[in-house]
Automatic annotation (TrEMBL):
It is found in: Cytoplasm. InterPro entries: Cytidine_deaminase-like, FdhD. NCBIfam families: fdhD_narQ (TIGR00129). This is Sulfur carrier protein FdhD. The gene is fdhD. GO terms for biological process: Mo-molybdopterin cofactor biosynthetic process. Keywords: Cytoplasm, Molybdenum cofactor biosynthesis, Transferase. Required for formate dehydrogenase (FDH) activity. Acts as a sulfur carrier protein that transfers sulfur from IscS to the molybdenum cofactor prior to its insertion into FDH. GO terms for molecular function: sulfur carrier activity; sulfurtransferase activity. It comes from Sediminihaliea albiluteola. The active site is at C112 (cysteine persulfide intermediate). Pfam families: FdhD-NarQ. PANTHER family: FORMATE DEHYDROGENASE, SULFUR CARRIER PROTEIN FDHD. Belongs to the FdhD family.
Length: 266
């Protein structure tokens, strides 16, 4: 699968009420294994949409604390392999040393690698404080209505998530899509590194639930407000409170629910 190809065509047979009605061509979301490699160290393999992988690699590196700032990424190369795609990165020597130390601390543990009492601090990292904007209901609703028109992969395949950054008026500034909600957020964070848009003055709008990871990643990027179309988790609400992030969920046209507002109740 070539990079930046988000979907493929497939021949399908359509059944209605138990009977074959037609053969048609369907657009299927592409999915492949993407290995993120730092200075020869393979750190993570993610199943992702093979598109905008430069944004994905940079955003993941920042949101997971591997890099502290975008300038610490010196070079990036996308290499197609038989089993998937490798994103090979050259990063600052200090970050390489920290990454090696992190990996050494996990060596010899059984299970998933982040299980066990010793790894809880690593699994649930401290969250970065943010400055929450004061958003109007009309701004949130404006972005919600506009989002579907910024999701070409979802329109073609019905199988992708979106993460959008919107300004304080609810205008969509930038959108990234992926089969994975975390990946979409990481792609958005990576793409925003080249933007002059003040992240503390707008909000992220996601087509998924508001989980701990989505709150943590958006706060790591300095985004002061997160709006999700689906439910929040209890941990996401708790982390938003700790960070001072405005958290809105169950956001649908005509209705949304505020779960944490640093400027007032709840």
């Amino acid at each position: 699968m070539a990079p930046d190809q988000g979907h493929i065509s497939a021949s399908v047979e359509v059944y209605e009420q138990g009977e074959a009605t037609e053969r048609a061509s369907d657009q299927i979301a592409a999915e492949c294994a993407v290995a993120l490699v730092y200075q020869g160290i393979s750190h993570a393999v993610m199943m992702a949409s093979p598109m905008q992988l430069e944004d994905f690699a940079l955003g993941f590196s920042l949101s997971e604390g591997i890099l502290q700032q975008a300038s610490e990424l010196y070079d990036l190369e996308i290499v197609e392999a038989e089993q998937g795609i490798r994103v090979e990165m050259a990063i600052a020597s200090e970050r390489v040393a920290a990454l090696r130390e992190r990996r050494r601390s996990l060596t010899g543990r059984t299970g998933c690698g982040l299980c066990g009492a010793e790894s809880l601090t690593e699994a649930v990292r401290p969250i970065k404080p943010v400055v929450a904007p004061q958003l109007s209901a009309s701004a949130v609703q404006r972005a919600l209505v506009a989002l579907p028109n910024h999701q070409p992969l979802q329109q073609q395949t019905g199988a992708s998530h979106a993460a959008a950054f919107c300004n304080s008026q609810g205008e969509i500034v930038l959108v990234r899509e992926d089969i994975g909600r975390h990946n979409a957020m990481d792609k958005l964070i990576g793409a925003l590194q080249g933007s002059t848009q003040p992240l503390s003055e707008g909000f992220a709008l996601i087509s998924s639930r508001a989980s701990y990871e989505m709150v943590h990643k958006s706060c790591a990027a300095g985004i002061g407000a997160l709006v999700a179309v689906s439910a929040p988790t209890a941990m996401a609400i708790d982390m938003a409170r700790q960070a001072g992030q405005l958290l809105i969920a169950f956001a649908r046209p005509g209705r949304h629910v505020i779960y944490h507002n640093p400027h007032g109740s709840p």
